[in-house]
Write a structure and sequence with these properties.
The structure holds two protein chains of two kinds. By secondary structure, chain A is mainly α. Chain A has a three-stranded antiparallel beta sheet, with helices on one face. The longest helix of chain A is centred in the C-terminal third of the chain and has 21 residues. Chain A is extended, with a radius of gyration of 23 Å. Chain B is built from ten helices and twelve strands. In chain B, the strands form three sheets. In chain B, strands 2-1-5-3-4 form a five-stranded mixed beta sheet. In chain B, helix 5 packs across helix 6. Classes of the chains: A mainly alpha, B alpha+beta. At the A-B interface, helix 6 of A face helix 5, strand 12 and helix 9 of B. Chain A: This is Large ribosomal subunit protein bL17m.
Chain lengths: ~170, ~350
Amino acid sequence: MRLTLQMLISHGRVARKMGLGPESRLNMLRNILTGLVKHERIETTLGRADEVRFYAEKLIDYAKKGDTDTKAMKMANFWLTEKDLIPKLFKVLAPRFEAQPKGYTRMARIPNRENLDKAAMAVLEYKGNPFPPLQPAKRENELTLINQLLKGYREEQAQQAKTQKD
Amino acid sequence: MACRTVCRTLHRGFASSPAVVRPSSGGVHGQRSAVFSREQARQRALYPRTEKIEVVLHGPGLHGTLLIMNKGVSTPHSCARHLTEWHVKSSALALVDGEPWPLHKPLIQSCSLSLLSFKDKDPSLVNQAYWRSCAALLGQVLEDAFKDEYSVELLGIPELPVTSGAFCCDFVLDPQLDSWNPSEESMCSLIRGAQQLIHQDLPWESLEVTPSVALEVFSHSRCKQEEVEEKAAKSNNGTVVLYRCGDHVLLSGGPLVARTGLCSQYEVTAIHRLGEGAWGLHRRAQGLSLPFQLEAHHTVWRKLRSRATKLVTMPRESSSGAVPDLTLTQPPAPVHTHPPAPPQT
């Protein structure tokens, strides 16, 4: 084909290239996704974690259909290279996310890799995993003056509501 | 008959002259302040030669910092000045060897010091001191607010927990003002007086004195003298702690914060009548305040203020269940179910 300048400039192109080609990209994603289902929290480069996120959530959506569904089983069979993770997907992960419509994964950036490439790294996890939280929720100090005043105010309101109900 | 007229004129004569011949309030404050200054100078003169003491600082980022300070002259405030401006501005109270220490009280021996602010992990001591200081400020404003011919007697500051919603100051006005009720404008003028004091950023100086000196300071006020005797009886070593802010000398149940400039939002919310008591018609002035580091949004402030207009009672009184018949203006305060305030160390 004609070698144009537009071929080299990638403005607006959202599809990422990974590995040696599209097939290599899918294989890499499959490996990372298997690792995610196995460990529930993994550490990879930023771009790979971002790519896998879409597939991880779609896999959960398929798993929610149940293991009797042929399409869901075929998908799980394709994406999970270690076949003993398929029962874990259907029996552990799918029931965990029954109540949520979407947003089963969480991604957090971590310091760059120490190697020469200094690659941007990220941690990808399924929510509800047994490990301690990545970013602990910051609680405001309950004992400051203004919070104590508000606590007294809330208690009084509750008291008044109770006496009004009686 | 002549006897009756004589009796009537005598009775009228006694009724019109005040029970205690009071000088003007300005003169009283000046006299109290002069006695306080004299005692302060005398206590400072106890250390004629500069002796050094070692102060070990504790706090975030300061563990084990050693400062060499002067005995009897350096205060925790001067220790903070050796650190940074933020330490000076934000520290409200100091903890010397584990006990609360007013920031402007001189250190007398080598000790460990930590500066407390409103945003610490556990600011309960600071909160209580701040509540007491705001009530003291309220008392000062009330003393100044009325004309010289009307006497104002401050009865004391009840120790209320912060969760009760307002600090209060009990006082008794001149019997001529028994029928006076505060209007919107008078409340506004009280608030303005308080804001002026805050703006002047006066420090609260403390002094530990023997009861005789304290009785001399409050020689014009019988109820204050009784309070002095009560406090002397309660304290471990028989001394009484006086605090001075600007011109006014007052007693307090515990340490006060460093200076008036620490308060930012300050409002006098209500003045309730508590009924006849030992000294006349007891009244309770209530207020609400927040320090400059913890300012509230106006929506939050409005809600807290509307709660602060209701009469606050001590947790012990309300938990007994009896409806206090002293409240003439507001319905009885709801029963506080939270535990009482932690004991002051």
